Structures are given as C-alpha cells and as structure tokens.
C-alpha cells in the first residue's frame, strides 16, 4: 500500500495584537521552524515590546484562546496554529505601566510630553511606519473594508451559496445574515451549512444573528462566499455504501 503524507506549508500567516489597546498590526508570515525565542525577537521589532519580558498567547479566528507560547526553545510549528489566527503580545510597552504599584498614585505623562519622547512606543511605530502610522496599510484597510461592505450588501439573504476557505473543503449552505459582527473587524456573511460542518448555531459571543441548529452555522468573509444555483443535496443516512 502506498504511503500518503499530509503536506503543509512551511509558513503560517498570523495577525498580531498587543495588550496596549491602540496598537494592532497587519497579518505577518512566519516560518514554522522558528523558535519561540526568535519569534519574540521578531515581535520585538514589530510591536516595540521587550522580547525578554513579553508573553505570547494564541487565539483562533473566533477569538478563542488556544494556547500560550511559553516554551522559548519550542518551534512555532509545534503549536496548533493555522493561517488567520492571532498572536497577542502581552508586555509593558511603556514607562506608565512600570509605575503600577497597586493603589499608589501613578504619574501620567502628559500627552504633549509623551509625543516629544524619541524612545516611546509611539515614536518607534511612527519611525518605522507601523500600525496606525502606516498610511499605506490604513488605505489598504479602508479599501478592503469598502469592498467587504459592498460584497456583503450585495449578497441576498436566503440565497444558496458555496463557501470556499483556505485549508478547508468547499461547503454548501444558505445565506442567513450579512453585516458586521460585534468584536470582529469588517463585514461578515452568516451561513447555515447543509451539513454540521460549522462552528455555532448563528450565535457569536452570546448575540444571536440568525437561526440554525448547532454546528450548522458559521461567519465567513464575503470574498469566501459565492452565491448561485447550488441545490441542497439529499443526504440519505440509511443508504448503503
């Protein structure tokens, strides 16, 4: 019998966020054979955090915590990470957090003075044109948001559709919702699949967006949804195979 191997990419694309709420970054491509120690060094350049003190947590596309990348000697590929997931960097990032001694009053550097500092996170990001200071990325995000909105608004609720997502089989279903989803960026399409291949029942973080049975619902990006004449298949569970 021939041997079959599962071939996966040597790289993984991950979003980056930080514990400083006003800082987030574009999706980055990392090699799976990089150690967590070397990953932290890269994240230090990206986020302005300290690779010696930062902690890294991983979240899936549903914003659910998956694991903590705590072993500096481990390879990135040894953790259950897929394209589109998010690495959350926890660190101090600036001097204000270092002055946190419980109930002891903290000195808050005036914004005008903070803006003059050359060694701050803000100065680092502005100098390297990263995050919210990267005009090209901002325009790219605005264009993407506009395109997502147009696609979502032009997708009829109740229409049949085919969902194609990277590293997953094509799935057929019915469009049940279009629009924003709280806590998630951009616009989304709520789909009720023909089979229990989804992740929810039309509910996300306690809010109900549409009705369907558990594991039949999912929220996907508009560009992954193709509407058309996709008749629902008749799944005969009693058919002999």
Automatic annotation (TrEMBL):
Pfam families: CAP_GLY (PF01302), Ubiquitin_2 (PF14560). Its main location: cytoplasm. The keyword Cytoplasm applies. Residues 179-221 form the CAP-Gly domain. The keyword Cytoplasm applies. Belongs to the TBCB family. This is Tubulin-folding cofactor B-like Protein. It comes from Tribolium castaneum (Red flour beetle). The lineage of its organism: Eukaryota, Metazoa, Ecdysozoa, Arthropoda, Hexapoda.
């Amino acid at each position: 019998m021939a041997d079959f191997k599962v071939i996966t990419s040597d790289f993984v694309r991950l979003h980056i966020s930080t514990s400083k709420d006003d800082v987030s970054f574009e999706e980055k491509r990392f090699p799976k054979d990089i150690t967590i120690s070397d990953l932290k060094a890269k994240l230090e350049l990206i986020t302005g955090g300290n690779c010696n003190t930062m902690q890294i947590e991983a979240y899936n596309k549903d914003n659910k915590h998956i694991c903590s990348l705590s072993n500096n000697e481990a390879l990135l590929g040894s953790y259950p990470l897929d394209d589109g997931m998010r690495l959350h960097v926890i660190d101090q990032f600036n001097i204000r957090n270092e002055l946190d001694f419980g109930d002891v009053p903290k000195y808050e550097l005036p914004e005008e003075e903070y803006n003059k500092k050359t060694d701050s996170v803000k100065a680092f990001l502005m100098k390297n044109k990263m995050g919210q200071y990267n005009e090209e990325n901002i325009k790219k995000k605005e264009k993407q948001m506009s395109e997502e909105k147009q696609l979502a608004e032009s997708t009829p609720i109740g229409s049949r559709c085919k969902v194609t997502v990277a590293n997953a089989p094509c799935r057929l279903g019915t469009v049940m919702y279009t629009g924003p989803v709280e806590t998630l960026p951009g616009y989304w399409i709520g789909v009720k699949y023909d089979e229990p291949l989804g992740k929810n029942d039309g509910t996300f973080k306690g809010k109900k967006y549409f009705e369907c049975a558990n594991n039949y619902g999912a929220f996907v990006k508009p560009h992954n949804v193709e509407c058309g004449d996709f008749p629902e298949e008749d799944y005969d569970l009693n058919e002999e195979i």
